[in-house]
Specification:
The chain is mainly α. The longest helix has 30 residues. Keywords: Membrane, Transmembrane, Transmembrane helix.
Length: 42
């Protein structure tokens, strides 16, 4: 990559979508951990 190359920043919509997917993945991971704990206690 050269210094003269333009920044290849993703568009705003894509960044929002990526942030949302990251939060969704985090929530799903937390939910899975919680489900494992609940299943382990029974």
């Amino acid at each position: 990559m050269l210094w003269s190359d333009p920044e290849n920043e993703p568009p705003e919509e894509l960044r929002e979508t990526q942030a949302m997917l990251r939060r969704l993945g985090l929530l799903m991971a937390l939910g899975m951990v919680l489900a494992m704990v609940v299943a382990g206690l029974r």
